[in-house]
Every structure is written in C-alpha cells, then in structure tokens.
Amino acid sequence: MKVAAVKAPGGLDKIVIEDRAQPTAGPGQLLVRVRASSLNFHDFAVVAGMIQTADGRIPMSDGAGEVVAVGEGVVGWKVGDHALSTFFPNWPAGGPQLQRIIGVPGDHVDGFAAEFVAMPASAFTRLPKGYSFAEAATLPCAALTAWRALMVEAQIKPGDIVLTQGTGGVSIFALQLAKAAGATVISTSSSDAKLEKLKTLGADHLINYKDEPEWGRKAADLTGGRGVDLVVEIGGPGTLTQSVHACRIGGHVSLIGVLTGVSGEVPTALIMSKNVAVKGVTVGSIQDQVEMVAAIEANGIKPVIDSSFPLDGIAAAFAHQISQKHFGKIVLEF
Question: What EC designation does it have (predicted)?
Fold first, then answer.
C-alpha cells in the first residue's frame, strides 16, 4: 500500500511517499480502506518536527473510509460499512485522563496518511448520514473540539452569545454548531473578505480585529455591555486578554489554540474580577463524537472544505495550510 511518512527530524521536505505492507485485521480490529483525511494544526506540528515522533511515522489524526475486513470478536461492524476515526481512541467517555489521551493516530502511533489501516473497532464511529468520506474526515479533530467547547464544557443554550476567532476549521465548526444551538455569534478575522464568508454561514456580528485592536471591548459593546457567554479561544496568550474583556461576568473561555505562542501574560486580575472560567479543551471522547454525529444529522450541518489534495500532494497541502489563504478545511482524498 502507499503511505506518506515523515523522516526525522521533520519538515515538509522530509515527507516521503513509499510502499509498505498492507496490514491485516487482528482480533478486535477493523481493516479500513482509507479514502480521506483532513489537515489540522496538530498534524502540521507533527510533520514539521514541532512534535517529536518516531522516524518514519505515518501522520494524520483524522480518517474516513470503508471497512474491508472485520477481525475476530468484532460486533456491530461488517464489510462495506463506512467508518470514521477518533482522535483519542482510548477515551470512550467521561472526562480527560492521562490513559485516555494517549494513542493519538499520526502522533503516538501511525495515522491515516495510508491507503489501509488496521485499528481497534472501538476506535471508530459511523459517519453522519449523507456525508462523503472527505466531509466526514473533517470531523474527528476540528469539529469535535468545537463541539466539546460549546456543548460539553460551556453547555451553551439558545439565546447565548458565542465569539469565534478566525476562519480555521474549529472556528467555522463552532460558528455552525452555535447557530444550530440557537446562539448569537460574533466572529472575528483580519480579512473583510473572510468576514463576509462567515456572514453567509450565519455570523450575526463581524469584527475585523486589525481595524479594532480592542476587539474584546467591541464585542462586549455589541452585547449592550453584558458580554459574551463563551469565547472559543484560538490564539492563546496574544488574544486571551481581549477574550476576557469580551466575556460577561461569569463567562467562559474555551482555550483551544496557541497560535500566538505557548506562554505569555495572563490577565489574572481581570479573570478574577469577572469570575471568568478559562478551560483548556483538547478534542473529546468517543461518546462526544457519537453525540456530535447525531446532532450534525439532526441539523443538516455540512463542513466547509477549502481544497482537496491527493496523498502524494500532502506536502503541498501543508504548504497551503501554512499560507493561511484557506477558508475552512483542507482535505486529502485517495
């Protein structure tokens, strides 16, 4: 089978396309013919060498494909079923624990940049009805992160106000899921053209953060001074202060990304005085994914796909990702 692999120490020029032996389905496993994967920042960190992995690691945490063999003892799956990967295959339900968040495909173990994978049947869920493989492959990391931030941690409800940052996969899914839940959404971006696209997806208020450096206060003003219920925080230290300014008293910040750095000044007095909860969110459990798939089906949500690349175009796909010219998800189809 054809795979993409990352040679140490990493870098886009260290991704090689090679042939490896096709795996077989062992006891409790499914053999899946992978048809699509999608790019996340975590995947880029792996291929760029920011996250150290074994030499020759097959990257990509997300995958969707067709079951071609069912291992001994597996129930609930049959040949021909469509299967969707999970980011944390050892996290069935409940809250995060160390043993539940190890085994990430494409990082701790080989991932989905391969034509075939053999993995435990428990590590897969079904696809939303009517979804293509490419559409489904956008869900396990980005969509589930947004789902957990909104529905599991912040537990938003109709009438709440949610602020999203930028136009990456998590942020767009957060916008779509929040609107489906009956929330008002304030979206930020540095691009007026991208803001207009967010408007077509349902964003109620738009802020260009280059034009409004104090965008957190602007967001609070848009709520009549009350503040937002939830900020889906993608930037990290460079944006956290404005996110807290945007929040209502007793509001919630779901800290998802560190695009502005891994450490920095924390507005401790502001967080304390506003009684804001800042909660780190790293994807979610298998049960969370099952519930998200059901919600997607009920609301007819479709992912926004920017572009598609073949498996041997994986380096070009990552180059497109880091150019930040995309809107929505970048996928691999093979």
Answer: 1.1.1.-
pTM for this structure?
Answer: 0.96
CB 2 within 8 A of CB 17: yes
Look at residue 262 and tell me whether its pLDDT is greater than 90: no
| 246 neighbors 165 (Cβ within 8 angstroms) | no
Q: For 101, what's the count of Cα atoms within 13 Å in the CB-facing half-sphere?
A: 10
Q: Letter for the amino acid at 174?
A: A
Which residue's structure tokens are 């080989």? 110
For residue 129, give the DSSP letter.
T
Tokens of 180: 């489906």
What is the pLDDT averaged over residues 216-243?
A: 97
- How far is 294 from 303, CA to CA, in rounded Å? 15
| pLDDT of 35 higher than 90 | yes
Strand partners, 315: none
pLDDT at 211 over 90: yes
Average pLDDT over residues 80-108: 97
Which pLDDT belongs to residue 259? Answer: 79
For each of the domains in the chain, give its residue range(s) and CATH number, in order of start.
2-138+303-333 (3.90.180.10), 143-280 (3.40.50.720)
**CB pairs under 8 A, 24+ apart, for 164-167?**
164/188, 164/198, 164/203, 164/232, 165/231, 165/232, 165/233, 165/234, 165/235, 165/239, 165/243, 166/234, 166/235, 167/191, 167/194, 167/197, 167/198, 167/327, 167/328
Residue whose entry in the numeric block shows the structure tokens 């391969």: 114
Taking the C-alpha atoms of residue 117 and residue 1, their distance in angstroms, rounded to an integer, is 10
The phi-psi region of residue 191 (left if phi > 0; otherwise alpha if psi is between -120 and 50; otherwise beta) is beta
Helix or strand run (H / E) with residue 314: helix 314-323
The Cα 166–Cα 209 span in angstroms is 10
